[in-house]
Design brief:
- Keywords: Electron transport, Transport.
- The chain is an alpha/beta fold.
- It contains six helices and eleven strands.
- The longest helix has 15 residues.
- It binds adenosine monophosphate (AMP).
- Adenosine monophosphate binds next to α1, β4, α3, β6 and α4.
Length: 249
């Protein structure tokens, strides 16, 4: 069974992002970039399925500029077998990424596609759902447990009221939530091994996909600065302030 995993290169979660002075976006010049944390979880899950003997091959895919090769090498150091870079300098929106992944699903015919539930840079939470719709595949988003049995996959999802378990027929699309697993540390020997793994590069045109942005960003602004907090001496004062000053209770 083949698994396709998508990995996005995003601003590292430890970086405090700054908005560009002209309000056109976030400044990513000279900023540390890493694999989207939910995608690390997605790769880890695929690797665990391979270690259990369920999966036979894991293909990591990243869409973006040539630097995404680093992200693919990290995925291969975690345990992906090969990587595909869909190289473009164009700003990619979720629909474009979903179309690129759909083209690769058609080509590679994986039994399972695992994406992150959202990319921490744009927080769209759209790509997995759009891919499932375009590829006409069943989907289970926000997975916290994945179990494959025969031609079915059982996925536990964290929903507001508790846990929901879905059974999907393979092939299917899954998006990973935070509690699905804890990704392993990438070891030096595995980083070295990953350098020798196959990494193919294709262009969106090769896949017949037009990736031109469909949405226009009008303005990006910093959130308003929060005022300093205060310390209250006791609960009675806190309740009084919440009632009479903040008027929230
Ligand atoms: P989003 O819908 O943008 O929040 O992204 C959800 C998931 O889609 C991410 O966690 C990735 O797995 C995948 N994804 C989004 N953009 C890309 C990209 N440029 N390259 C690879 N995967 C991506």
């Amino acid at each position: 069974m083949k698994i396709l995993v998508s990995v996005k290169r995003v601003v590292d979660y430890n970086v405090k992002v700054r908005v560009k002075s002209d309000g056109t976006g976030v400044d990513i010049a000279n900023v540390k970039m890493s694999m989207n944390p939910f995608d690390e979880i997605a790769v880890e899950e695929a690797v665990r399925l391979k270690e259990k003997g369920v999966a036979t091959e894991i293909i990591a895919v990243s869409c973006g500029d040539a630097k995404c090769q680093e992200t693919l090498r990290t995925a291969m150091a975690i345990g992906a077998d090969r990587g595909i870079l869909v190289e473009t300098a164009e700003e990619l929106q979720p629909l474009a990424v979903a179309k690129l992944l759909k083209a690769l699903v058609d080509k590679e015919q994986p039994s399972l596609v695992i994406l992150g539930k959202q990319a921490i840079d744009d927080d769209n939470n759209q790509t997995g759902q759009m891919l499932a719709a375009l590829a006409d595949l069943p989907q289970a988003t926000f997975a916290s447990k994945v179990e494959v049995a025969g031609d079915k996959v059982s996925v536990t999802r964290e929903v507001d009221g508790g846990l929901e378990t879905l059974s999907l027929s393979l092939p299917a699309v899954i998006t990973s939530d935070l509690r699905l697993n804890e990704p392993r540390y990438v070891t030096l020997p595995n980083i070295m091994k990953a350098k020798k793994k196959q990494l193919d590069t294709v262009k969106p045109e090769d896949l017949g996909v037009d990736v031109k942005p469909r949405l226009k960003t009008l303005k990006v602004a910093e959130p308003p600065k929060r005022g300093a907090g205060i310390k209250v001496p006791d609960v009675a004062t806190l309740v009084d302030k919440l009632k009479n000053e903040a008027k929230v209770i």
